[in-house]
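Appendix B.2, paired examples.
Example (i):
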Amino acid sequence: MGAGKSRLPPQTLSELQANVDVDFTHEEIQQWYHEYLKTTGRYKTRLTREDFQRVYDSVFVGDSRDFVGHLFRTFDLNNDGYVDFKEFIVGLCVSGSERVDRKLGWAFRMYDTDGSGAITREEMTIMLKAINKMISQNNKRSASDKGNSHQNNSIHDSATVEEMVETFFRSADKNGDNQITEDEFIEGTKHMPVFLHLLEWDPDSA
């Protein structure tokens, strides 16, 4: 059956519409299902990390492998190494949500790389370096196209990464235990929104 004629099973649609994190309409979910089938192909029902990687490779010039690995982790809710359609829709809705609390919850999970429920300096550094590897080449190309040597919205070097992490911890780590809880992260990003904006970086805006 061709992807264009496939319909989402009614039970799956009902489960998605009952999910509190899903705010897509019936029609939007069905449209995404068609796009999902185009990516998985005829003989697959789940997305792999490699499928995610191909999408990012088509958009970013830089090395996005580390970032994609962390993004895939936040979509793969049951940690089975695959993203099925329900996980895909939930991930899209949460990561692209207009609700700040929901999006910040997703951002926290991105930085909490080991899933412990708290972010360490090392984890935040790992994520910022992954972002920089992905976006730096896009920024260089954009700056070259514009005749501008400055790289806006990028992290220039390891020293800058370390400084950003230390600044965030000084501001957000209220109890001084050298780790950031979700509540501390949400409060901290109110004063340093760059930690959310970097996760949403759009290469077309560079």
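Example (ii):
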Amino acid sequence: MNENGEAKTGKGICLSRLITINDHLRLARLQKKEINFKIVVIGDVGVGKTSIIQRYTSAQFSSTHKATLGADFAVKTLEWDEVTRVNLHLWDVCGQARFGSLTSVFYRHTAAAVLVFDLTRPETYNNIVKWLKDLRQKVQLPGGLRIPIVLFANKGDISTETLPPQIDDFCKENDILYWFITSAKSNIQIDEAMIKLANAAMRNHENLQVPLLTDDVIKLSEETVDSQTQRNWKPCAFV
């Protein structure tokens, strides 16, 4: 007990002081500026999109998943700094062809994207071109700039022998920021990849005044973007 009759908790701080500090911290969390980014996760059926999102947002993995119908989403909250909280809305877009006509709806307000292929099924890498073309035709940032994209070579816990040797060149030619060997099952490089993607989305938001998820400003177009005039070259790297 101190001279005021207050119970102390450990050395140098009393219970009432601790409660006051906790109240301030709680108030600071409530007063943080919140920024929302929508990130679409796209690729063929069965490449592991749902497992990647589940691993990243809830630190869980399940070997049994039903195929996503249409789209689903989950949220990952990042305490970015002392005054900013970033909410990543990860959209799990169905890979079935019959939902292809709806991608322009699913892509709406997208600030960044993850392309996923399955290292155990090489044909899913070949289809990345289709997914990338569809995304680029339908989503642009203000001013016609491209959204940041990372590429996941998923199920790397099973095998990496089928890793395409041309993946570096593919990323550079298609303005993909980074590629990663990932595994939802073994939790390989997913957190690192998402932080890099979130950083890219934040830079766009700060430097280009990219609208937030709630703003209906992102341009959606069915016209093909001129890749020569719109290309914004950035280094592609395996991390």
